[in-house]
Amino acid sequence: MIETIEIDKAFNVAAVRKHFPALQREVKGKPLVYFDNAATTQKPQAVIDALVNYYSHYNANIHRGIHTLAEEATAAFEATRDTVQQFINAASREQIIFTGGATEGINLVAQTWGRQNIKAGDEIIISSMEHHSNIVPWYMLAQEKGAVLKIIPINEDGELMMDEFHKLLSEKTKLVSIVHVSNVLGTINPVKNIIAGAHSVGAVTLVDGAQSTVHLDIDVQDLDCDFFVFSSHKIYGPTGVGVLYGKKELLESMPPYQGGGEMIKDVYFDAITYNDLPYKFEAGTPNIADTVALKAALDFTKWIGKQKIREHENELLCYATEQLMQIEGLKIIGNAKNKVSVISFVVEKVHPQDLGILLDNRGIAVRTGHHCAQPLMECYKIPGTARASFAMYNTKEEIDSLITGLQKVIKMLL
Ligand code: PMP
């Protein structure tokens, strides 16, 4: 356990950084500058401790045991459900389903609600800026059922064209599945308006919160979304666990996703009754340790203060945007008025991958490529971008290193 470090009322990034052991390391002999937070965030000591503590002291299978370890493990696992419920303001804990991540949450809805409700000729609306996770499951469902995918276009700044969205809506629209925050552009989409529009034609809505949950306050009741998914690892928690939230009446009407232990009440060879929510969707032994540690991640984020984190990240976003715009030949992809601290960019005559490799030589981790958003790359007619994404622990000095690094690297490459 590291000692508790007091966080100033005015956000103290140096104190925050001390909670993240990975930030203390060097890469290629240089201090690590970690700007790949949209792919996954680093983990605070509290999360690492929660994992070690679980395996060291109360590792046991949950729900079925009556011995002390099983009871402790069950209590810790279920405590995470309560914390998630509060974190996204769900009306009840039964509406929180643990999954392997955002991807699995979307697939669960496609394979259960989707297969039950989508038929030939129905329309599913997604957007041009979706991650492959929110394209492929709907493409597969549409192929199977003879349904049609409709795509909301974006403007040059990387904002959804809302008038076009409204034109796409009709009585054929059965589902609108939309990313809350783009992992490439950083755009914050007006999901509340989109949900209201979808509901006006009787469509069901899913919000992909993989990138939003770490930056924004999430209130699923206020959004009025039917489904919401996110991944623990993008909000300072472990990999391998995620959350699907759903409206109760929808979750109750859906068939189970996978069959196995825990998701049943009674099993006979000729008749099976399924368990109540949320267990109906949680077949088999779940990822207990990582789910337990997700609570530590959410508690940590709350303790630091989401508002303070947001303000700090906004400052980094503005500072980095200004600095990057000074670099000759560099173009930022995604200039939405409402965006989070994710900046994608391209540099004239330079391949993003070369930028990534040479920046890594300077200890700077950025992501390059299509970011699992090939249709979006197609919109901009580019093969990929370099992307710097900032978290609570990043600093202006690190942005200065990126800018200096980019200037040097570009000079080398041209
Ligand atoms: N949606 C978006 C917008 C994402 O950025 C990601 C992860 N890059 C996902 C979905 C999928 O998340 P995961 O891989 O954790 O399931």
From TrEMBL:
Primary enzyme class: transferase
Cofactor: pyridoxal 5'-phosphate
InterPro entries assigned to the protein according to its UniProt record, in alphabetical order: Aminotrans_V_dom (IPR000192), Aminotrans_V_PyrdxlP_BS (IPR020578), Cys_dSase_SufS (IPR010970), Cysteine_dSase (IPR016454), PyrdxlP-dep_Trfase (IPR015424), PyrdxlP-dep_Trfase_major (IPR015421), PyrdxlP-dep_Trfase_small (IPR015422)
Transferase found in the keyword field: yes
EC number of this enzyme: 2.8.1.7
PROSITE patterns per UniProt: AA_TRANSFER_CLASS_5
Domain Aminotransferase class V: 33-402
GO molecular function, one term: pyridoxal phosphate binding
Keyword annotations of the record: Pyridoxal phosphate, Transferase
PANTHER family per record: CYSTEINE DESULFURASE (PTHR43586), CYSTEINE DESULFURASE 1, CHLOROPLASTIC (PTHR43586:SF8)
Protein's UniProt name: Cysteine desulfurase
Species in which this protein is naturally found: Ilyomonas limi
